[in-house]
Amino acid sequence: MSPPSGVVVLTDRRVARGGLERVVAGAVAGGVRAVVLREKDLPRAERAALAADLRAILADVGGTLIVAGPDPLGGDAVHLPAAGPYPPPALGLVGRSCHNQAELDRVTTEHYATVSPVHPTKTKPGYGPPLGPDGLRKLIGVSPVPVLALGGVETSEQVTACVEAGAVGVAVLGALMRAQDPAETAASLTRAFQEAVTPRLPTPGAESTRFPRRGLRSTVPTQGSSLTARSGHGRPQPQSATKEKP
After folding, report:
1. 176, 163 in Cβ contact below 8 A?
2. Peptide bond before 89: cis, by omega within 30 degrees of 0?
3. Tell me, what CATH number does 166's domain have?
4. pTM score of the predicted model
């Protein structure tokens, strides 16, 4: 199971406009291929039923549902908090929330990490201080695993800045949960990610110098394949969220 990349959705049914399943379906239609199910306040039976519903939405595009917490709810992918458990469970896909170098130093067999908060966030107001692109870049530089940028990522420009800092993708909550048109918002953010990881081709007659984004070799990702690049931490880049535009 490949670690997530591109635009990854974190759920919050309390702010999901028109219902959580509608938002997730729209995000998937817009190119999202990985969803992190939060909703930790639900009883396990209700949460497991919700997980099954979201897996069905993702199954049509070969996507992955990642469950926040150590219980995969019948699946094989979890996202763990920085506090534990340690060591992580032996599952097909394990992520870890990290906020500083000390937490990244504790990562062992996890497949990826989120680093947050990159920007101020409405979901956790006052949480931080925000790292900004420079702080994100420094933590990515010491991470042993691929990093998703998390926290207040809402615009295409912010997606681009995160990729330029070395992130393999962005984890988004509010911008998609509150979106009037989740498909359009997801498509816009995914397009920004694709453009950020696509090498700039030289103009005719100019020197044949390419300018790949920081941390990524000039390999354009397509759905169903892996980025052959590495982002400075010694592990292959994960599967991209969408196909390259023709």
Report:
1. no
2. no
3. 3.20.20.70
4. 0.81
194 Cβ contact partners less than 8 Å away, ≥ 6 residues apart? 6, 220, 221, 240, 242, 244, 245
Q: What distance in Å separates the CA atoms of residue 212 and residue 86, rounded to the nearest whole number?
A: 37
Q: Is residue 104 part of a domain?
A: yes
What is the domain range of residue 176?
Answer: 6-197
Q: Where are the beta strands (DSSP E) in 63-185?
A: 64-68, 77-80, 93-98, 112-115, 147-150, 169-172
Which tens digit of pLDDT belongs to each residue from 7-20?
Answer: 999 999 999 999 99
Q: Could you give the CA distance from residue 114 to residue 95 in angstroms, rounded to a whole number? A: 7
**Residue 166 forms part of a structural domain:** yes
| Residue 231 domain-assigned (yes or no) | no
Domain count, the chain: 1
- Classify residue 83 as exposed, middle or buried by CB count within 10 Å of its CB (0-12, 13-18, 19+): exposed
246, part of any domain: no
